Amino acid sequence: MVDPKLEEVIQFERTRPDVHGDAHPKKLLRAIVEEGNHLAKLSEQHIFSSDQFDRATLLQLFRLAAKYEANPGRFSTSLNGQILISAFYEPSTRTRLSFESAWHRLGGDIMSITDRSTTGIAKGESLRDVAEMFNNYGDCVVLRDSNEESVREMMAALRIPIINAGNGTDEHPTQALADLYTIFKWRPDLVTNEPGEKLKLCLVGLPAKMRTVRSLLKLMCHFPDVFSKITIVNDKQKNEMFAHGQLAQLEQAGLQIDAANDLYEVLPEADVVYINAIAWEGNAYKQYGKRYHLNAQSPLKSDAIVLHPLARSVELCTSLDDTPHNWYFSQARGAVFLRMALLTCLVKRAERVLDVI
Amino acid sequence: MVDPKLEEVIQFERTRPDVHGDAHPKKLLRAIVEEGNHLAKLSEQHIFSSDQFDRATLLQLFRLAAKYEANPGRFSTSLNGQILISAFYEPSTRTRLSFESAWHRLGGDIMSITDRSTTGIAKGESLRDVAEMFNNYGDCVVLRDSNEESVREMMAALRIPIINAGNGTDEHPTQALADLYTIFKWRPDLVTNEPGEKLKLCLVGLPAKMRTVRSLLKLMCHFPDVFSKITIVNDKQKNEMFAHGQLAQLEQAGLQIDAANDLYEVLPEADVVYINAIAWEGNAYKQYGKRYHLNAQSPLKSDAIVLHPLARSVELCTSLDDTPHNWYFSQARGAVFLRMALLTCLVKRAERVLDVI
Amino acid sequence: MVDPKLEEVIQFERTRPDVHGDAHPKKLLRAIVEEGNHLAKLSEQHIFSSDQFDRATLLQLFRLAAKYEANPGRFSTSLNGQILISAFYEPSTRTRLSFESAWHRLGGDIMSITDRSTTGIAKGESLRDVAEMFNNYGDCVVLRDSNEESVREMMAALRIPIINAGNGTDEHPTQALADLYTIFKWRPDLVTNEPGEKLKLCLVGLPAKMRTVRSLLKLMCHFPDVFSKITIVNDKQKNEMFAHGQLAQLEQAGLQIDAANDLYEVLPEADVVYINAIAWEGNAYKQYGKRYHLNAQSPLKSDAIVLHPLARSVELCTSLDDTPHNWYFSQARGAVFLRMALLTCLVKRAERVLDVI
């Protein structure tokens, strides 16, 4: 017989407990009416910045993501014959696997580049020539590069769509889409005609330097009716927290932006707590806000949800993992479906999955 | 016309000569009756250690592997829609390609991680968080890591199955499964009601340090009726050859374990000679037993078979490659089918390939 | 509304202007009659050197490539169930993606090795053993290695076909096939019974050291009726430009080979200008012919076409990109279809795509 201690170690369960962020996407599906025409423009645009979306397109993207999440195995041939070039010049496994998983789930093929030094760039090749090469070999590109300008140079020469999966400290639009998708799965009423209480969002991070934060704040500009207040928490003064013009854009959109240094003063009234502690700068990770920690003892509202783009370190304690506050795992899971929705539109396959064309 | 010397260099044959370990798997298929219920438990277990198997499950795995080997192209859609995360943090091409080939042959999709430094671990991410990420992005994981504990940490958080493809010096269970599968393809009578002569096995290697050897000896514990004697050959004293508790486990299972320093004294009576010379320790390969060599002049029994987990170096001379003793190439080939069988069970697709469900 | 400057950056077009080398492959399709029997020998040969082809086989390969290029999505299941081992031990993204794209377009599966240090070679494994491993795990191999002899050692032990994708400074046969395919798409009359004017080709490069050039010159030996003169341009004396025996082979085939140091003297009468400036030597790229540059002001014939195997640097100026001389992008695009044709034949799937079997 097998040693009971070994038996315990090797047994596993496939199901997950419901309390950890599993609001069924069906609620969001029902909350938004399908209007596929708002997705049409996505088939002729690169995905570069959160600034390029409008509210109607966002809602349809979230609806399509919810459709995928509610029927995970149904659309497994939608991207048949399509090739994704997965180019991660800056180290990443999480985002790369998230995109590659999304593309596989829809039946497409993938070519990966994970080492910048093997590319023609080592031979002195220009990014425009790399883009022309991609035009001939694939149907869609995902790029992460610590060099902020690489994606711009490539967009100028590409005739297939590219998704910016993180360019230096600038933006990471699909992460922001996934974050907002998670919030609306939790509170689908907020995108209906009968929304409930608006949300107070506490954001622990540095908007000037963190691309995930920059992209998310921009997306929230389309939903000033959803967020009553956004409080940015870090150890800087308010006039040092933002990049040039960043705060102005948010306020012009109608968002109420506060700043605070004391996390525990903000938490008790926050409905959503978003926390991130690292930024990729130059060619290394830098930690910001070391003194801000969330754990099971933090003074969170009883029904507050916590989001984190991951990877996390000490700023988000594992003691929160088994509490109902944990929506960061759901956030990662939903990101695959969100990316499935976006990729489908980019390569003009939306007509295979929408009900009305 | 093409230069004859060039013609000779570029021409190749697809078929292989029968003498080199091509016992048709059909003999083993007939020797074991299909009893698929013994495979059921494999759909809720990680594959971590040779200790977790029982004899009935092993025989059904070998039977399913033989079924795949006898009909290599028949089940090419069995893993449709399934994603494998192939994580090889310790350098390997052989084992990685063996698993990836198995998964492709069954129609599944693959995401590879071959560079530990690109993972979140570089960002200070815990293995439990890496496991949670894998839960969201794939259906099965294969992991090789020189850090022995990594797989344990991941098993605790994974809700999809993981196969330990080598954890430091600890274990490499699927290699052992492939080794035993090869032995039973050679002598299928040994698993029937009318077995022939038992086997004397000569094992050149260091049980304390070589994970392939450790895993194989454990599996042999389920077949004390098959092996009359196992002689371990290396340059150490018997009390230094084994890790703590290792020899006791083998003897309690009814195996007769001898030790010897002189290879040429043991060879003339060995039916199976298993040889391995390297172990992965820390972060480099270490050679053991440099003075033990097998070649075509070694005093092997005329019908003895030689096994080696590969890669090999000087310890197994190429002069044996074209002799009937060469079952190490067959061992590598059969490993793909064995892994196909195991992977099929892990992701609950066995019902697509078994005759009786 | 979206900022117009952003809108401009993210919008893209999928179509390409016709002037840049888009001679429809249908012209070449009509110019060559299908005679599939000439492709039969490709199913039992490794693809090692340009020397191994004959004229009839080349024409059929070009025809099959043109068939693929004219019907890009039609044959998307031809390589179902086939596994390619894509082994690029010398840094490359361009050639690797070209092959992988070709294999994906035909519905096959791929396993990539991009880091020599992870292979058994790091464990002291021989190339013959690596080949035997490949025999068990895949159906076709593509190999690039700065070590010129690696592919020879592997061919001796492989029972599946291997394509030499560049071995040191020796050869790169599929690049040459793609180059000649491009020339014949441009001037299909040259392979008919009523050819027009022969071509004068100007080749800027070093035949002794550049594998793309070496392979291309060899292929041109089968078409002395197509090229009236080939002028090699570099900064060496004629007796230093060629490797031992290289010039003799070309002249014996009936090619008229001139040499020159002054590019601008040769250009005005060249119909085809082929330029390359780098060679891989040892384990780094070396630049040759730094003083030879082509740009929009170069004295090219008005209808001359320019070819470059890419990656390029300053020797081929981007000012030529938007001129009708630019056939180097078409060259890269056609290379995928040429590789699709060759790979189909190698794994014995030509009968799935030929009209007459």
From TrEMBL, chains A, B, C:
Ranked from the top, the taxonomy reads: Bacteria, Pseudomonadati, Pseudomonadota, Betaproteobacteria, Nitrosomonadales
- GO cellular component terms, semicolon-separated: cytosol
- What keywords tag this UniProt record? Transferase
The record ties this protein, via SUPFAM superfamilies, to: Aspartate/ornithine carbamoyltransferase (SSF53671)
Query: Could you confirm whether the keyword Nucleotide-binding appears in this record?
Result: no
What protein name is recorded for this chain?
A: Aspartate carbamoyltransferase catalytic subunit
Source organism per entry reads Nitrosomonas halophila
Does this UniProt record's set of keywords contain Metal-binding?
no
Biological processes annotated in GO: 'de novo' UMP biosynthetic process; amino acid metabolic process
Start and end of every Aspartate/ornithine carbamoyltransferase Asp/Orn-binding domain?
198-345
Q: Which family does it belong to?
A: Belongs to the aspartate/ornithine carbamoyltransferase superfamily.
Describe the location of the Aspartate/ornithine carbamoyltransferase carbamoyl-P binding domain by residue ranges.
45-183
A Pfam family hit:
OTCace
Named from the GO MF annotations, one term is: carboxyl- or carbamoyltransferase activity
